[in-house]
Structures are given as structure tokens and as C-alpha cells.
């Protein structure tokens, strides 16, 4: 993925994936397929966390994660990731970047005044039985808007975008937030950027599809 060179970050630097969180995974997957003509592929279950996902490639090493409650898992002891149980409707909730050096980027961001939180391990098993392991940041220090990305490092695991996903090429990512400057600082500290305007908190993206450009969010 590349960053637009004319000052507006049409596609953010180091973009790894966008997160479309939903209280009803099957319904959101069907809706994505209806609108785009492309059916997301099953990703796998986040064991112990009570969620599972479906994936769509966005071109290059980037993808869309549609994540929601997993009806085949018991309810977890704590909150499900992205608080999917509490969402009244599907929402483009946040995004992730994959910098070349996760730990170095965390340290540099802290030195610049933004703490993305510590990296912790997660995993999921794909439908064909492969176990994917990664580290990602998050937790209390994360910016409450969701517009500052969390960081992810796939280590030795195969990147989801390299697994033959159906693809809807990403055209642009943008967001609105009441105080854009409060978000621009953390974004710069992480070495990325986002097309921001003033308004209610919202993250949106546009993809090219067999049915033409489609915007979510």
C-alpha cells in the first residue's frame, strides 16, 4: 500500500487492516456481499475471546476484517474484542498498522508523547487448521476515538492478505472527529496519517468492486 503524495493520506502509511465490527457477523458478511458482489472469506475463531471473523483483501498487504460474536464459542469471562456485544449496529470501528519494527515504533511514539500501549500476543486458527500468531497493541492507553490505529506484528505467521482472499481494492480511507488536531499528533507519532475533517467521530473507507465504488462507514 502507498500513501498519496499530495498531502492527503488517501491510504495511510503501513496500513495492515481495517476493522468492521458487528453484533451479527453472518448478517454483515451477507450485506457486504450484497453491496459489493464479493463474498468475504471465513478467517477463523479467536479462541477464548468469543469472536470470529471474515476477511476481504484490500490490495497489497492490507485487508478488511469483519469481526463479530462467535455463536460456536461460550461467552468469554470478560468483554469480547471491540465490545461487539454492545454495538447497536455494524460500525467501521478502528484500524491497524504494521510498521517494520513494532517495538521500535512503540518506543518512538512514547518518546513523541503518545503511548499506544504494550504489545500482547493473540492467535486464531484458520478454517484449514493453521494457527496464526501475532502481537498487537491496545488497552487503556489507546485513543478512545478508534481513529488512532493499533499496531500489529505478524512475526513468522503467514499474513492474512497472502492467503488468497477475495479482493476489493481500497480507494481511500477517511475520518471525521470533533478535534482533528488531537488525532493528528498521535498519528504523526506512529509514522502514519489519515484524511481527517471536523465532525462526529466516524471512520469510513471506499473500495472498488464489480458493482463500482462502495463506501462503508
From TrEMBL:
<protein>
    <submittedName>
        <fullName>VOC family protein</fullName>
    </submittedName>
</protein>
<dbReference type="InterPro" id="IPR025870">
    <property type="entry name" value="Glyoxalase-like_dom"/>
</dbReference>
<feature type="domain" description="Glyoxalase-like">
    <location>
        <begin position="15"/>
        <end position="190"/>
    </location>
</feature>
<dbReference type="Pfam" id="PF13468">
    <property type="entry name" value="Glyoxalase_3"/>
</dbReference>
<dbReference type="InterPro" id="IPR029068">
    <property type="entry name" value="Glyas_Bleomycin-R_OHBP_Dase"/>
</dbReference>
